[in-house]
# Entry
Amino acid sequence: MIKLPINEFIFEVKEEILSYEELGEKKADEWEKNFIKWLEDENIKKKYVKGNGEKKFYEIKDESVIFEIADEYYDSVLQKKEDLYWSKFQ
# Structure
């Protein structure tokens, strides 16, 4: 398992989202905004977030998880189901 500091995790996912021309910077920024909102929601159990405060990490099996997250986001945008994406996000 790889523990990525939250800022690094956000950067990596946004970089992958930017590789989709159809999404662009606006959608990458939107993903970041919604991720932070998700992260701060104390009513959501976060399976892969470890640590607390400034020392939070997002735990991934390997780098393929970053690609999967971006791919799922891409599909949700195309299908206009971003709310569903965030409701199932882990």
Notes: Residues 2-88 form one domain. The chain has one domain: 2-88. The longest helix spans residues 24-40. The chain has a mean pLDDT of 93.
